[in-house]
Amino acid sequence: GLGACCVAAACGGGSMAMPRLSLLKKLGTDIAAPGRLDREAVLLAIAVGDRDRLLRTLKQVALAGERAADLMLAEPVSKLMGHQDPGICAAAVNAVGSMGAAAFRFADDIAEYLLKHPAAPCRVAALEALGGMGADADRLLRQAVAGCLTDSEVSVRLSALQALSAMKATGQAKQVKTTMFDDPSQSVRSAALETLVILVSLSEEVESMCPPESFEKPLLDMLGDERMRLAALGAIR
């Protein structure tokens, strides 16, 4: 299963004019135009299992987005989220996360297993997929994302803040505020400030929890860095 796999994871130019694609035939079937997703080609890449081919295919699936779901690729691609290769795992999560409403079916597995994956890129991909669900993500998913605010990797904590912003997770504002004050990374504290400002704008309850004076120390701490200075200016506007 997905859980077991995640726990086991270690971490041309001729001058001849080209004929119109619509006229090209192969065994009586139209050849897919460049960039068009072919379901059978995706399934074949999954079956063959060559790493480079899989990664290229998963990138194409991610770019296709909801079109991939229309081709009924969500289920076969989702099985690769438990792949022991972290690169394939992350690419599969990105692909599933791009499929719009079809991704919701796998949200619980993503939160339960992939937010705990030993490889940080897989945790980042999981957070991006959950963040892509936006305000439709339920309370348990938001809580799972907020739990990543204490992750050991800066990239994961930043992704968690971005996901909480996308989810409009006002119920997790207290944890974001704690991150703004206590995280050892200045970049994470800055991102937490930006996220908290967004949450304050969405909820009177969060606004009452974060009076203007509560931002004073974080703002002063962050004024030494250009990016953080921009975040601070955005917070006081």
Q: How would you sum up this structure, described in words?
A:
The chain is built from 15 helices and two strands. It has 237 residues and is an all-alpha fold. Strand 1 (25-26) and strand 2 form a beta hairpin. Helix 3 (51-64) runs parallel beside helix 6 (86-97) and helix 14 runs antiparallel to helix 15. It is elongated, with a radius of gyration of 21 Å.
Protein topology:
Elements: H1 2-8, E1 25-26, E2 29-30, H2 39-48, H3 51-64, H4 66-70, H5 74-78, H6 86-97, H7 107-113, H8 120-131, H9 139-146, H10 154-167, H11 173-182, H12 186-202, H13 204-209, H14 216-222, H15 226-236
Antiparallel strand pairs: 1-2
- Note the overall shape: elongated
Helix-and-strand structural type: mainly alpha
| Helicity range | 55-70%
Q: Total strand count, please?
A: 2
- Counted by DSSP, the helix tally is 15
The side-by-side strand order for the widest beta sheet comes to 1-2
- Low-confidence region ranges: 7-34
| Sheet having the most strands | 2 strands, antiparallel
Distance between the termini: 49 Å
Q: Kindly state the mean pLDDT as a whole number?
A: 84
The Rg value, from CA coordinates, equals 21 Å
Give the SSE string: HEEHHHHHHHHHHHHHH
What fraction of the residues are assigned to beta strands by DSSP? under 5%
